[in-house]
Amino acid sequence: LDRLSPTELPGLMAELDAKRLLSLTYWVCAFSNLLGFGAESTSCVEARERYEANRRDSVLGEIYPLCPCQTAKHLNSDTQLCELNKFESMMEYLAAVVPEFRQVVVVDEDFNVFSRAWVVSELAVAHRLKIPQKLKMRSASSVDRCRRHHGKREIKIEECQASWPADKADILAKIENIPEFNRTLNRLIFGEQDSLLVRFST
Asked: Where are the alpha helices (DSSP H) in 55-102?
């Protein structure tokens, strides 16, 4: 994370550009839960096509080899043992037993991170649990770009995307009042006072 600071970031970007890696996007799960073991066939054509593309080498077109370990693979349908639906419980546990626990959200240049259902859901959970939160953005000018990008169009959890429709359905099912959730979420990110964007700028 040190290399994401405003002084170090230009050098890091130059290195990535020289290696032709600057255009790659990674989703990083700091909890290291078994994300790769939750994928399951789906009747949704778009989701299935995305799944097929993501599980193949983008150059060779070959399917990535499976992990050879003997760890049991629990799919989305196995709600008790699958780890994909345990983020909220995990965050509650860590907030209770790890005093230094923090949430860091790295924001991509196009702000797509705010269109992902899991991301905004975890932002809201951390806020509810009073977990200290911090954004990492490319530069201070990114704050103004982000505000212009979203303009008066609020983020709505029901319009956010998830790789699997069932994941989004699970997220929405846990929210008692979706309009109120959206208002709180937008205040948290874009509010004029003590929002994540304001904290990044100060």
From this structure: 87-97
